[in-house]
Fold this protein.
Amino acid sequence: MKNLVQSFQDYVQAHQLFPRSAHVLLAVSGGVDSTVLAHLCKASGYFFSLAHCNFKLRGADSDE
């Protein structure tokens, strides 16, 4: 069985989301899914930067 990192790499390649040499900008909220995406990109060796987006969707908790 493939691990999550390998599945992610296969998906990116199969759908030609971006070339391996690209500098990718990830818009992240700091939630679990954004954190996992950043981890997968790092573990896959992609060159990326993070842009934090706070849309205040969780009320006062958004600022923590």
In short: The mean pLDDT is 89. The first strand starts at residue 23 and ends at 28. Residues 25-57 form one domain.
